[in-house]
Amino acid sequence: MMKVTYLGHSGFLLEMENIYCLFDHYKGEFPEWNRDKKMVVFVSHAHYDHFGKEIFRLRETFSEICYILSSDIDPSEYAHAGFSPCSDIISMGPNEEKDVFGIKVRTLRSNDQGVAYLLHCGGRTIYHAGDLNWWHWEEESEVFNKMIRRTYQSEINKLQQEKIDIAFVPVDPRLGEQYCWGIDCFMKRTDTKYVFPMHFWGNYDIFDRLMLEKCTETYQDRIMKIEREGQTFLIEA
Q1: Residue 4: its H or E element
Q2: Which of the 8 DSSP states describes residue 223?
Q3: Mean per-residue pLDDT for 105-111?
């Protein structure tokens, strides 16, 4: 059993038997911690809405903790609020692999900034996209949008042999009618049990929109509907 808590925007807390995984936290309240568990904190890139510096205060709570930060984050960022680089920080660029507390961590290259994360832990597979998405902006050139499409599809194709238990994927309403292209491509090209839409800027109506899209008909039962910050989900896997 895995417990998923939505913290806000692209921030999620995943709790397993012996470990927590915290993804892209910059807002939202934490639950009461089990201090006997280990903690791995993931930051996909340096944008403010994915990288809250208060994550470093978790060192005061967990005796076994590791930070996995994308390589685009400047080390000087660590010094914010009096914190400095420590041995518990690992920097990962695209297409790298690390083993942390028994979790095999693999990165994909984001077509925006930083990385996406794929985790293998205890027979489970978890994907957090960060800002890897099909960013089709009407105001951009055809050349730019074609490049974004190709890079996104290329990265998602790398996941086709995976059996993903939980995925966290952007559905940004600022993209207009194209908001669902990324999640649709992801769900149709991967074998994913449950997907949590994210990066929707507090617009919870996006979930009703997803249920009305013809393209989502084949996987609507696998879309987890988020209704508020702090909401929890129990996932059997």
Answers
A1: strand 2-8
A2: B
A3: 98
